[in-house]
């Protein structure tokens, strides 16, 4: 990296990076008997990568369902509150003004998000409860089927062809009424189209890849990308499904995903949803890693993009690939901040 690139990286990073998807609450829940997990295990990476806003995703693993979904979700939120209350480093934010204030005071802002509505059971009223606790973005499903709809599978075809259930449609409407961002990551193609048709606000896909480079229904195709673009939504590019091939899972391929979206719908609709998962994956025994491979796929982690300290590698590569400073700022934070300003 020569000096002028270095200086540009420094300057671009200094405004902060927004990552709309991180499985943090799940890890805090697993480590609930420890104190100061954020400070000891995450802070140095957040600082090194100038991370300023994180979509902290509540996710409930199969082993807790169905009975303990709500309980574990509440405990994940509780852990996040316990780790941030009184902290000068971290803060949970519920609206745009709080996010901006966190950025100005140099604290990492957490926006609580939810990946899959299993914690709601079949009770719409729980959305209001979760909203009061700070949840500001909801994706209806992960890869599985639930009371709201179906997740897109990790294959080029074969996801259920039905869209949302009645409950799923009610959730989407309730989210728009309350001011909760509806996230289209993971939903099957039919559900995706249905959400677009019943919402009025800009839609987001917090973390996904494009099918052009990894053709599975969990990712999104050009038509779906255009649907987001037409409504001035934002798509966060995921780091763990950039290619089915390990050798092609590179930082350049990550930038290819950004470029593909920008070419189709413009630079104002692409952001980051890193979905860094390697730190959880490496804590698992081999048997559990094999289970994941059998159920979904083997994730290929990009060697120089596996944790938040690597955000500056991305900034550097965007410069090398010819992106302008204005465009890079939009990708790193500007586009997500616009969504927060409009929707929260
Ligand atoms: Zn996900």
Q: Explain this structure to me?
A:
With 344 residues, this protein is of the alpha/beta class. Helix content is 44%, strand content 13%. The chain contains 14 helices and 9 strands. The protein has helices spanning 3-13, 24-30, 37-48, 69-84, 96-104, 125-132, 166-178, 189-198, 222-230, 251-265, 278-281, 286-295, 311-320, 325-343; strands at 17-22, 51-58, 90-92, 108-115, 135-139, 181-183, 204-208, 234-237, 270-272. Strands 1, 2, 3, 4, 5 and 6 form a 6-stranded parallel beta sheet that branches. Strands 7-8-9 form a 3-stranded parallel beta sheet. The longest helix is centred in the C-terminal third of the chain and has 19 residues, at 325-343. Bound molecules: zinc ion. The site of zinc ion (ZN) has 5 residues, from loops.
Estimated helix fraction? 40-55%
| Ligand names | zinc ion
Distance between the termini: 38 Å
**Secondary-structure content class:** alpha/beta
| General form | globular
Counted beta strands: 9
Taking all residues together, what is the mean pLDDT?
96
- Beta-strand fraction estimate: 5-15%
């Amino acid at each position: 990296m020569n000096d002028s690139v270095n200086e540009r990286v420094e300057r671009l990073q200094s405004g902060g990076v927004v990552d709309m998807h991180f499985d943090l609450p799940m890890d805090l829940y697993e480590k609930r008997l420890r104190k100061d997990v954020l400070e000891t295990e995450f802070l140095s990476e957040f600082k090194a990568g100038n991370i300023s806003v994180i979509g902290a995703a509540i996710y409930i693993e199969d082993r807790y369902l169905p009975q303990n979904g709500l309980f574990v979700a509440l405990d994940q939120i509780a852990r996040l509150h316990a780790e941030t209350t009184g902290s000068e480093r971290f803060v949970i934010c519920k609206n745009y003004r709080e996010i901006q204030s966190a950025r100005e005071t140099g604290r990492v802002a957490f926006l609580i998000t939810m990946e899959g509505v299993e914690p709601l059971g079949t009770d719409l009223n729980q959305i209001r409860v979760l909203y009061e606790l700070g949840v500001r973005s909801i994706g209806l499903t992960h890869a599985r089927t639930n009371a709201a709809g179906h997740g897109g599978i990790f294959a080029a075809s074969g996801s259920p062809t039905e869209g949302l259930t009645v409950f799923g449609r009610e959730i989407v409407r309730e989210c728009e009424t309350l001011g909760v961002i509806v996230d289209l990551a993971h939903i099957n193609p039919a559900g995706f189209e249905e959400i677009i048709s019943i919402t009025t606000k800009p839609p987001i896909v917090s973390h996904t890849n494009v099918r052009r480079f990894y053709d599975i229904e969990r990712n999104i195709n050009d038509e779906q990308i255009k649907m987001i673009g037409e409504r001035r939504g934002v798509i966060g590019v995921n780091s763990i499904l950039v290619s089915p091939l390990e050798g092609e899972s590179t930082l350049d391929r990550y930038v290819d995903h950004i470029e593909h979206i920008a070419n189709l719908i413009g630079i104002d609709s692409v952001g980051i949803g890193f979905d860094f998962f390697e730190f959880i994956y490496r804590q698992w025994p081999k048997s559990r890693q094999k289970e994941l491979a059998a159920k979904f796929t083997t994730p290929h982690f990009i060697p120089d993009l596996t944790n938040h300290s690597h955000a500056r590698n991305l900034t550097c590569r965007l410069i090398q690939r010819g992106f302008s400073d204005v465009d890079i700022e939009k990708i790193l934070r500007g586009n997500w901040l616009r969504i927060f300003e409009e929707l929260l």
